[in-house]
Design a protein that fits this description.
The protein has 11 helices and 10 strands. It is of the alpha/beta class and 266 residues long. The strands form 2 sheets. It has a 7-stranded mixed sheet, sandwiched between helices. Strands 6-8-9 form a 3-stranded mixed sheet. Helix 5 packs across helix 6 and helix 9 packs antiparallel against helix 10. The longest helix has 16 residues. The chain is globular and about 60 Å long. The two termini are 22 Å apart.
Length: 266
């Protein structure tokens, strides 16, 4: 049975449908630009969802057909007064590390604009679904700044040095299909279909073993932090954790019995 609930936290709308939660940045008057209230709302929701075993996937999107036009530049004056190594030394403070360490799959459903912090937000998610008119870019150099929330690091890991440098140093935008060819986007949809497509993918993910999904995500993300040999050991460890789980026994029994599995995350 599908259960749908909707709540509003600060400038973030929360819709929960069965095992999937959609977090919507709700600042359409500012093209869903990121400010402290948005970061606080997203961070609070991720903290709540992290240990909720009923939640299998999270989607982040923007209200009224726009993903996110970047950081709200009116917040920069306050940032200049922050200690260089303080918690909020980067726009969003600890939100980015908390999103990066979130154990469940996070899908970005992108329409129209994903610029600056919007591109950084998409890159910090696990999967990006984009409407064909979506635009991506890190134009901070045009404002005399640089990305401060992982753009220089995640972009080069996603698309390679040359393509990343071309975007970082020119501030140029690319469309969804070029972003897909480069490796930023997983799936390009018709305009207006990014969220439905993300929901459909999240449903397929939610049907799998939550333990196996978490272990696969953990092993894959370790590749960004470790040499290959160490990453392979990490993968092997997670493989044996999954192999000894109740979910794996259930999956095997369901396959042999030609029935749908009933996973518990154990």
């Amino acid at each position: 049975m599908s259960l749908t609930t909707m709540t509003e936290a600060s400038e973030v709308l929360v819709v929960r449908e069965s095992a999937i939660v959609t977090l919507t940045i709700n600042r359409p008057h500012a093209k869903n630009s990121l400010n402290r209230a948005v970061f606080d709302g997203l961070r609070a929701q991720l903290a709540q969802l992290r240990d909720d075993d009923a939640v299998r996937a999270v989607i982040i999107t923007g209200a009224e057909g726009v993903f996110c036009a970047g950081a709200d530049i009116t917040t920069f004056d306050a940032l200049r007064a922050e200690p260089l190594l303080g918690e909020r030394a980067a726009v969003g403070g600890s939100f980015w590390s908390e999103l990066g360490s979130f154990p469940k799959p996070v899908i970005a459903a992108v329409e129209k604009l994903a610029l600056g912090g919007g591109t950084e937000l998409a890159l910090a998610c696990d999967i990006v679904i984009a409407g064909e008119s979506a635009k991506f870019g890190v134009p901070e150099v045009k404002l005399g700044a640089i990305p401060g929330a992982g753009g220089t690091q995640r972009l080069i890991r996603s698309i390679g040095k040359s393509k990343a440098m071309s975007l970082l140093l020119t501030g140029d935008f690319i469309d969804a299909r070029k972003a897909c060819a480069a490796g930023i986007v997983a799936v390009v949809t018709a305009d207006g279909q990014a969220l439905p497509t993300a929901l459909a993918m999240a449903s397929r993910i939610a049907a799998n073993s939550p333990l196996a999904v978490a272990l696969a995500k953990d092993a894959a993300l370790s590749s960004f932090e470790t040499p290959l040999a160490q990453g392979l050991e990490h993968e092997k460890r997670n493989f044996f954790v999954a192999l000894r789980s109740a979910d794996n026994l259930e999956g095997q029994a369901a396959f042999l019995g030609k029935r749908a599995p009933s996973f518990t995350g154990q």
